[in-house]
Amino acid sequence: MTMLRAERVTLGYGKRAVVHDVSLDVTEGGVGLIGESGSGKTTLARAFLGLLAPMSGAIWYGDQTLKNADMRAFRRDVQPVFQAEALDPRMRIGSSIAEALPRGERARVGQLLEQVGLDATLAARRPHQLSGGQRQRVVIARALAVGPRLLILDEPTSALDVTVQARILDLLAGLDTERLLITHNLAVVERLCRTSHVLFAGRVVESGPTRELLAAPAHPYTKALRDAVPKLGGAPPEAKGRTEAVPAATGCAYRLRCPIAVPECEQAPPLRDVGGGRQAACHLAGDVT
Ligand SMILES: Nc1ncnc2c1ncn2[C@@H]1O[C@H](COP(=O)(O)OP(=O)(O)OP(=O)(O)O)[C@@H](O)[C@H]1O
């Protein structure tokens, strides 16, 4: 079932578009948006949260566009999991979570803390009195407070060390809430997302079932991303190793970095079916796999 759908969405700030003509469905089993810094993942997530209106195209929530949808129902159904740093440092954990609960249900704070694997007594502490992993669990508890059907998570584990990260992934994998997950960490999407979309310079360059997509990328950019992490489950790529997604001005946005570019790449390739439920925007997609 599709919960949210982007239909030919172009997004930007002021007059500058940074996400171009993206169509994708948020379906069951987890959906991952993968791409390097600046590729437009967070911008797309904001549009899915109704925080940024498309310059063109639409975000659909059921049979309504977000522009016309009942936003009260939407906010109950779709919750962001923001970075733990965004917790109010002055507020006790219990109050932070209670604030997100409907009136009359504030006694559920302890229950929510336990649901995310924390002791209910932590409610009396302030964020700086918790570890990074505990803070991230609090953020998840807060998002779960209204009983959402979908969580939109932006790099939910990137600030955590690998073992803590693994435990948070276990927690997220065990929730019966759907998820749209934004990350540059391929191990995270492999664990939590049945389907993934790879973004480069604001365009989807490859989509498909995560496992197959990572095992045999059809787009040279997906292959480069995957090869930058030699072993899935290992540490995420270092931020310092990433470069901004500077696209070629014409043709395939990736062609200036692409090891297999041919003259044909001066014409932008459309996203097309390459078999196995997969799509890739590359003239040479068959050759890459
Ligand atoms: N508030 C803003 N105003 C203007 N430009 C912005 C704003 N936020 C993001 N951008 C630009 O939009 C582009 C996409 O940014 P976005 O944050 O969506 O990328 P990202 O893939 O989430 O990157 P990261 O992994 O570093 O968070 C970038 O070129 C960025 O500079």
UniProtKB/TrEMBL annotation:
Residue ranges constituting the ABC transporter domain according to the UniProt record: 4-226
GO-annotated molecular function: ATP binding; ATP hydrolysis activity
Signal peptide start and end residues: none
SUPFAM superfamilies from the UniProt entry: P-loop containing nucleoside triphosphate hydrolases (SSF52540)
Keywords: ATP-binding, Nucleotide-binding, Transport
Coiled-coil intervals, chain numbering: none
InterPro entries the UniProt entry points to: AAA+_ATPase, ABC_transp_ATP-bind, ABC_transporter-like_ATP-bd, ABC_transporter-like_CS, Oligopep_ABC_C, P-loop_NTPase
SMART domains to which the protein is assigned, alphabetical: AAA
GO process annotations (BP): peptide transport; transmembrane transport
Domain of life: Bacteria
Assigned protein family: Belongs to the ABC transporter superfamily.
Matches recorded under NCBIfam families: oligo_HPY
Protein name, per record: Peptide/nickel transport system ATP-binding protein
